């Protein structure tokens, strides 16, 4: 899966429509093999992004958990620390 697709569920504040759409765009890019589709494929590509975003929003909205929401700032700091340990920067 694309490294740029991040977990969007159970965060405080919740994922925004823009974050869901960005993840959907990355997913469709990965599936199609296009970073930018041709004019002939543009409509199908955009429709797929819209459909994946709608499905993702429904999924995120319907999931339930008893776990406390994760804090975005803390998770970002942890990711940065993992990256520094892995790449030495």
From TrEMBL:
Protein name: DUF2277 domain-containing protein
Source taxonomy: Bacteria, Pseudomonadati, Pseudomonadota, Betaproteobacteria, Burkholderiales
Top-level lineage group: Bacteria
């Amino acid at each position: 899966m694309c490294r740029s697709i991040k977990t969007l569920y159970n965060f405080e504040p919740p994922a925004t429509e823009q974050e869901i759409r960005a993840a959907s765009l990355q997913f469709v890019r990965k599936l199609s093999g296009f970073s930018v589709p041709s004019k002939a494929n543009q409509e199908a590509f955009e429709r797929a992004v819209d459909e994946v975003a709608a499905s993702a929003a429904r999924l995120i909205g319907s999931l339930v958990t008893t776990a406390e929401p994760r804090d975005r700032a803390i998770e970002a700091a942890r990711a940065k620390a993992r990256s520094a340990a892995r790449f030495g920067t």
